[in-house]
Amino acid sequence: MELLEKAIQERGTIIGDTIVKVDSFLNHELDTSLLYEIGKEFQQQFRHKRVTKIVTIEAGGIAPALMAGLAFNVPVVYAKKQKSLTMKGDVYCESVYSFTKQVYSDVTISKDRLSSEDHVLIVDDFLANGEAAAGLISILKQAGAEVAGIGIVIEKSFQNGRKRLEELGMEVVSLARIARIGEARIEFLKS
Amino acid sequence: MELLEKAIQERGTIIGDTIVKVDSFLNHELDTSLLYEIGKEFQQQFRHKRVTKIVTIEAGGIAPALMAGLAFNVPVVYAKKQKSLTMKGDVYCESVYSFTKQVYSDVTISKDRLSSEDHVLIVDDFLANGEAAAGLISILKQAGAEVAGIGIVIEKSFQNGRKRLEELGMEVVSLARIARIGEARIEFLKS
């Protein structure tokens, strides 16, 4: 998605050779027009699939997921993330490791919010190691829901997330695929 | 806003006499059509004001703020919330007390994301004691930005948040104002 690659290139901040911060339009400030286009693009890319619900994780995933929900005209559910707790209540839960923060979190969705009738498109802002997406897939399986596919805004294609999700049989569509983060320039894969 | 009051009445869960859970359309699952209407309503209500940016707090505020941003065609900035930390970096910061969780959090916005040129509409999902909104006002003042007003999805009018914000000179618009939470029914104020 050219508009998105341009935003990453021009408005992202490169930190070392593995991180590009996109606080200026995706992770802290939200570029509403760009996000609207991102939502429409997810709908285009997955129009061959039956989608009854979008699922994501707070907080970074909420904005792109909501715009996808708007384009598909379906509800969005965002999983909650918290330091691992013992009390679980009436939720589906999966433990997810954050490589950035080096901490395990519990990712939870209330049982009320999912059903075995759901056909779910998972949407997230980033795909790196695939930990978060794999956690959501596990939760959706617990609920007996169908996973229609995985829509990612920015994929770090030099990490193993896509491979991991494809090995789970998932269709992964990433709107921007970063091949390499150079000192002053980001190289993209053709998506 | 009638559509919203209807959703609260029919799809909210009453817990005791002070809490109504709206996980079914606003705080966990997001009703995208309703949120789209909420965004448009904020734009209508504040169309007399100059608004260059929407500011909110993660995670509950992101969805209504994004829809307001879409209606106004302006960017959204969501403040980050974390347990009080010593390391602050290059951010505006305010300590905010959560009465529900009984814990202080640091609410932060990167200095890069605000300027003294900004005319900001604050948007949040709930107004109870006004702690979060007052924290955001303090951050916006640190940045020298103008506060155009405060748009709230659900106000608990039996708590003192509105009074507190009005005493700070703020225009507060709440799309639903709860006067009283009864055992089986919620009473609204005319807004």
UniProtKB/TrEMBL annotation, chains A, B:
GO-annotated biological processes: purine ribonucleoside salvage; xanthine metabolic process; XMP salvage
EC number: 2.4.2.22
Subunit structure: Homodimer.
UniProt similarity note: Belongs to the purine/pyrimidine phosphoribosyltransferase family. Xpt subfamily.
InterPro entries: PRTase-like (IPR029057), PRTase_dom (IPR000836), Pur/Pyrimidine_PRTase (IPR050118), Xanthine_PRibTrfase (IPR010079)
Binding site for 5-phospho-alpha-D-ribose 1-diphosphate: 128-132
Protein name: Xanthine phosphoribosyltransferase
Record-linked CDD domains: PRTases_typeI (cd06223)
Subcellular location(s) per record: Cytoplasm
PANTHER family hit by this protein: HYPOXANTHINE/GUANINE PHOSPHORIBOSYLTRANSFERASE, XANTHINE PHOSPHORIBOSYLTRANSFERASE
Reactions catalysed, as given in the entry: XMP + diphosphate = xanthine + 5-phospho-alpha-D-ribose 1-diphosphate
Cited HAMAP family: XPRTase
Source superkingdom: Bacteria
Domain Phosphoribosyltransferase residues, every copy: 43-159
